[in-house]
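[User] Once you have settled down, look closely at the record that follows, and write a paragraph about the fold.
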Amino acid sequence: MMTPMRYVFLVLAILISLHYIVSFSNEDYGRATSLAKIKSKVVGSATVPPYKVPLSEDYHSSTNASSPQNRKANAAIVMLARNGDLNGVISSMKQLEDRFNKQFHYPYVFLNEQPFEDNFKKRVTELTDSNVQFGLIPNEHWVQPPHIDEVKATAAREQMVKDNVIYGGSVPYRNMCRFNSGFFYRHELLQPFQYYWRVEPDVKFFCDLDYDPFLIMQDQNKMYGFTVSLYEYEATIPTLWKTVREFIQAHPDLVEPDNAMQFISDDGGETYNRCHFWSNFEIGNLDLWRGEGYSKFFDFLDEKGGFYYERWGDAPVHSIGAALFAKKDQIHFFNDIGYRHEPFQHCPQGESHKRGKCWCDSTQNFDYEWYSCLNRYDKMFA
């Protein structure tokens, strides 16, 4: 029997998904996908994975103090945004500054396929004492590539519109997914950095963060960090796993032996269970994407054309890439970072909630809802 809280989550997700389908404009490249039509159920019960080991007190800083270790990682906060996203950018950035970055002073990199307007730059730079850079995305990294058969791509979009697939008719959304999958880390402004924190407009950060997550990534040799994981829309990726298997068969030497295949497949890689990390929040090591394995993987996917013939999202592409090319213990759940991207949120529990002075309702937490994939992540460490 479904509990009242699960019923509320499910109804909310359906209503928001319907809103997106009705209101979406082809000129809005949107945000990450929401709830899929779930047929699978989570497996197993949670054990004690590494993220549940308490963080050393050495990492925590006192109020209004700089990092107690007097060091910083080589990192930047990255936002992909348009000029029209300004209010949402301001909201997200102000929360991130108040909860974390006014103490740690990491730089920002803003990226846009159109030049940023002066008013955008003025209002953004007023919010922080950190360095802010504004970058223009090269046209060839954004637009649909010339090898795509437009007749085939148009037919696919039209069919997705008929099937009410979210963002199914949008070329700009596909451009965004392809850019985030294979090009954001190639931008010239990101070349000096090793780590990044991806932030989107109109998200919420619920808790004070008195330690530097970039140093956790650096000191513990983590490659990818997340807060929310869930299932992907099957209708958007019908041939993605077939393509992934082709790549693995062609390049078995590039796959990390101690990989996280168990998170994305329940049968050793025969099929994809559609679990992915919600990539609107990412704290990552850029070396993961720049490495030989992922570089060849993305090029292989890009040549197949599934970003346009279907609607492959950067969330499953990044998640599969992280699962294949990083060790499973290099993928980190940031359990103490309270975060919301409509319609789902991660709200820290117990001592983490108290320590972070979190303002989210701890009972409204997506982690172990039946359409969350966190149990699958935990099961890897059983």
Summary: The chain has one domain: 45-51+70-379. The two ends are 28 Å apart (CA to CA). The first helix runs from residue 4 to 23. Confidence is low (pLDDT under 50) at residues 7-46.
